């Protein structure tokens, strides 16, 4: 199929999502002779589509609750610790999963279109940041972690309140006011968000070094990979949304004004707002290096640059061990970059969890 698409073996031309679309268009347009006792590709497509439609009625209309399940939260409804561990919306999502395919693929894409080694690498990165680094950081109170939610898209002030951006904007010139910022509070992030940025920094360096070592002889490959890498890290670019798609749900992007228990949210816009505040309004110099409280995260660039080297050396030392080449450090680091806007439930199965929240729960 790759040859039919003209992709060949070039590492810059493998786009799994395109291959899936190619298969779909073949099923819709190619004439195929049906072999007795078997199905044509188009017949299989019709059966799969009909079955999917029939199944979607269950999680979308009959039993919406199975779109996201969190047994830990159900069993210990009034335990804050249980909510932190089990909530797929605002916690670690341990034991949470989804039976709704639309929820599974809503943010992170279709896993069926991705190579297995890609999924394994990204899942390893997800486990590393969500199940190991984030809980250790939270329960050791790194960066005053317990003052803030463990997983959140918001930025906070030093008292744990959602950051009041209007207090650091000059009303006359509508620009950042450094004096007001110094008098109000530095920007603080949730535990996960801190190390999300660390993984992003490491991913930038790891991608460049990985491409240089594995594909350095192909200058066009290096350029295309670098451009693709910078495109993926869209957290550094502003996004303007007019909200036209959200007019049907009033206050959808203002959780405090929504009815209690409302499942609606706008995570993409919240992520864009967070990125614009950090990288645009306040600026990385106030949040990260040199004067920010998260300046130590810049060591992630060094870690990311060094991380691909051992795998490259092992691949050269043992060329017959093909599985070593499948360990891809940039992909491992990318395992965390889909969240936000996705939540921790996206790793095991989906993107959100409808879990109960006890009164007074900080997440």
Describe the fold and architecture.
This is Oligopeptide transporter 5. It is found in: Membrane. One of its GO terms (cellular component) is membrane. Residues 343-363 are annotated as: Disordered. It is a multi-pass membrane protein. With 363 residues, the protein is mainly α. The chain contains 15 helices and four strands. It has helices at 16-29, 41-62, 71-75, 80-86, 101-105, 116-139, 178-184, 191-215, 219-232, 267-282, 284-287, 299-306, 308-317, 322-325, 329-334, and strands at 69-70, 96-97, 169-170, 175-176. A two-stranded antiparallel ribbon has the order 1-2. Strands 3-4 form a two-stranded antiparallel sheet. Strand 3 and strand 4 form a beta hairpin. Helix 6 runs antiparallel to helix 8. It is globular and about 80 Å long. The N and C termini lie far apart (47 Å).
Describe the secondary structure blueprint for this structure.
Layout lengths: L15 H14 L11 H22 L6 E2 H5 L4 H7 L9 E2 L3 H5 L10 H24 L29 E2 L4 E2 L1 H7 L6 H25 L3 H14 L34 H16 L1 H4 L11 H8 L1 H10 L4 H4 L3 H6 L29
Antiparallel strand pairs: 1-2, 3-4
Helix pairs in contact: 6-8, 8-9, 8-12
Q: How would you sum up this structure in a few lines?
A:
It is found in: Membrane. With 363 residues, the chain is mainly alpha-helical.
